[in-house]
Amino acid sequence: MDMNTGKPYVICHMLGSVDGRIKQDIWGFKDHHKYFEETAEKIEADAWLVGRVTMQEFSSKKDHKINAGVSNLTHEDFVAQQPAATYAVVIDPSGKCFWDSNMVSTEHVIEVLTEQVSAGYLEHLRGANVSYIFGGKEELDLDLVLQKLYRLFNIKTVRIDGGGHVNGSFLKAGLIDEFSLVLAPIADGTIGSPTVFEVEEGYGSRKATQFKIMSVERVYEHFLWIRYLVIKDNNTSL
Ligand SMILES: NC(=O)c1ccc[n+]([C@@H]2O[C@H](COP(=O)([O-])OP(=O)(O)OC[C@H]3O[C@@H](n4cnc5c(N)ncnc54)[C@H](OP(=O)(O)O)[C@@H]3O)[C@@H](O)[C@H]2O)c1
C-alpha cells in the first residue's frame, strides 16, 4: 500500500455523532466500544496511533516518580527488543503517559516525543522497555514521525484512532489518505466538546479537505460506516 513512499499509508478511523462530536459521555450506548472496535478490526494496519489524551485511557494510572538525577540518556530514538510486530503509537510531546508494561493489548507501545522531555522520563520508558522516537525539538514534524515509524518499525499502514486534535494535526499536514467514519445516530450538541477534526479556530486562508466515497455500509441497524478517500488536490469541484 505504501508504494515506496518511505512512510505508511494513513487511515483515520472514528466514531462520530451526526454533529461530528466524539466524546460519548451522554450518548447512552450500552456497549459503545464495539461500534468503534469491531469496525476498526476490519481495517488492516500494522499500528494504531492516538493522541496523549486518548492514550491516557490505556496507560498507567499509578503515580510514577521521575528520577531528576539522570543525565546519561540523550535524545536518540530507542527501538526496544520485544516480540510484537504490531504497535500502539502515542503522540505525547512532553512525556505525560507512564507505563507499567510496554504493551496495550497485543500491541507494543511507541512514544512519539519532542526533545522537551527529561532524561528521567526516558529512563522511565527504558525501565518499562517502551520504544520511543523523537519527532522534533519543540514541535512535532508529523511527516518525519511517519517516516521513522516506517523505517524503524516497518509500519506500512497506520490507523489513526483520534482524538480530534491528533486527527486535526495530521489532516492539516496533509498526511491522511483515507477517513473511515462510523456515523452514530446521535445528535450530541455539546458546544466546545472535541469533534472528529480539530484543526484551527476561525476561518483563515486554509481550505477544508474534500473526500470521495469509497464505500458505505449500514451497520448496527442505525449506524453508517462510510469510507472516504482524501482528495489531495483541494481544488476539485465536487
Ligand atoms: N469517538 C471516537 O472514535 C474517539 C476516538 C478516540 C478518542 N475519542 C475521545 O476523544 C477525546 C480526546 O480527544 P482530544 O482531541 O481532546 O485529544 P487527543 O487528540 O487524544 O490528544 C491531544 C493531545 O495529543 C498531543 N498532540 C496531538 N497532536 C499534536 C501535535 N501535532 N503536536 C504536538 N502534540 C500533539 C497533545 O498533547 P499534550 O497536551 O500533552 O501536549 C494534545 O493535547 C477523549 O474523550 C476520547 O475518549 C473518541
CATH class of the largest domain: Alpha Beta
* Count of helix runs: 5
Name the hetero compounds present. Answer: NADP nicotinamide-adenine-dinucleotide phosphate
Order of helices and strands: EHEHEEEHEHEHEEE
Categorize the overall geometry.
Answer: globular
What would your notes on this structure say?
By secondary structure, the protein is of the alpha/beta class. The chain folds into 2 domains: 129 residues, Dihydrofolate Reductase, subunit A, CATH 3.40.430; 103 residues, no CATH class. Strands 1, 2, 3, 4, 5, 6, 7, 8, 9 and 10 form a 10-stranded mixed beta sheet that branches. The structure holds NADP nicotinamide-adenine-dinucleotide phosphate. NADP nicotinamide-adenine-dinucleotide phosphate binds next to strand 1, strand 2, helix 2 and helix 5.
Give a short synopsis of this structure.
This protein has 238 residues and is of the alpha/beta class.
Q: Any chance you could write out the topology, listing elements then pairs?
A:
Blueprint: E1 9-16, H1 32-40, E2 47-51, H2 52-55, E3 87-91, E4 103-104, E5 107-113, H3 119-127, E6 131-134, H4 142-153, E7 157-160, H5 164-172, E8 178-183, E9 210-219, E10 223-231
The protein binds NADP nicotinamide-adenine-dinucleotide phosphate.
Residues 14-15, 22-23, 36, 50-54, 91, 93-94, 96, 140, 161-166, 169, 194, 198 line the site of NADP nicotinamide-adenine-dinucleotide phosphate.
